[in-house]
Design goal:
Layout lengths: L6 H8 L4 H11 L6 H15 L5 H17 L2 H20 L14 H14 L9
Helix pairs in contact: 1-4, 3-5, 4-5, 5-6
Length: 131
């Protein structure tokens, strides 16, 4: 099971390049708990900024972990991955700050379903996800 306590560790294992951003994030909170949603948001911003530097196998690995979080995570993990990672990807794509074609082919079943539902909720059709 993927929990709030081990979720970020799994992402750090998949994306060791995130380590310095992660440390700066932890330092910002100065010993206080940042909360999983803030942690996943930090990862999403790192990911969006660096997505074009990741090779296909790295992207496959990251999105496999995202899918595992949605399938095997506790409710807080599922919520954070959905609202703080996937929504950020779709929102940045909708604002033309990120090309959906860079990630959409790596979306798993639940991830794709969530992105489509988010588009439906917001009334936006993210190119590559919905048409």
């Amino acid at each position: 099971m993927i929990t709030s306590e081990n979720c970020i560790e799994l992402f750090l294992n998949k994306v060791p390049e995130f380590e310095s951003s992660w440390k700066a994030h932890i330092d910002y909170w100065d010993g206080d708990s940042s909360g999983l949603s803030n942690d996943i948001t930090e990862f999403s911003f790192f990911f969006i900024e660096h997505i074009d530097s990741f090779k296909s196998d790295k992207l496959e690995s990251i999105f496999a972990l995202v899918e595992d979080c949605l399938n095997y995570g506790t409710e807080p993990v599922k919520d954070a991955i959905s609202t703080c990672f996937l929504e950020n990807l779709v929102n940045f794509s909708s604002e033309a700050g990120l090309q959906a074609h860079l990630f959409e082919k790596f979306l798993g079943k639940k991830s794709r379903e969530y992105c489509k539902a988010w588009d439906e909720f917001t009334g936006i059709k993210t190119k590559g996800i919905n048409y």
